[in-house]
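On to our target:
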Amino acid sequence: MDLAADRLKVRRTDFYLWRLIATALSFLFFGLGGIVLRVLIFPVISLLPGDHIVRRKRVRAVIRLAFHMHVQFMYRTGVLTFEVVGAERLGRPGQLVVANHPSLIDVVLLGSQMRDANCIVKQSLWRNPCMRGPVHAAEYISNSGSPEMLEEAADVLREGQTLIVFPEGTRTTPGKTPVFHRGAAAIAMRGAKIVTPVFISVTPSTLTKAEPWYRIPDRRFHVRLRVGADIDPARFSAEGPMPIASRRLNDHLHHLYAKEFASP
């Protein structure tokens, strides 16, 4: 009885009901925002002077601003708190940004830190009525897993774009060490000048693959995004042919993330 009373007291003192409402509003505004961008904003951008690359940069800058506003909404309504360490090292030409994926919000928070970045996104977003406009206008890459997708991703890195990849392909299982598919390492070995790991933690765990949006934690959650040390993919090239080099790089990433999220 005392434990139940204590839990109720925690929820009341941290505005549980308000955070539930604000979380629902966050999802609503995110979906409506995607539609507004597709219907109103991007058509105007397409009419502005400039070549294809200039228009693409404008689209990505608008998406970055929308992400920033969304994070600020969740912060100012008391849904979350956050911190970002090392953001100034993101967004460099030919940089492959690799991140773990503990919740839905980390995608938005990471995207809000880079003005002009490409991203590999899951195929379902290309059919989503709210998101298909932004992902198409920004020329993001569909995660088909095909050899053609790997080459397309490598090409954007060779062109000097920044590319964001979540190598797990889905959200991390709470309490588990991230397990990366080898695709990100293969892309890095093909075209990246530098690989930069980003470590994302969400405490307490929320918005995971196994949890519906309305199962919010007893207190507002905290998102921490830390940019790790750069990795030169060329150092793995000497270890053998492309498949072996990719495997070595992938193993190195696994080691970094296992060390970062090891239990104290």
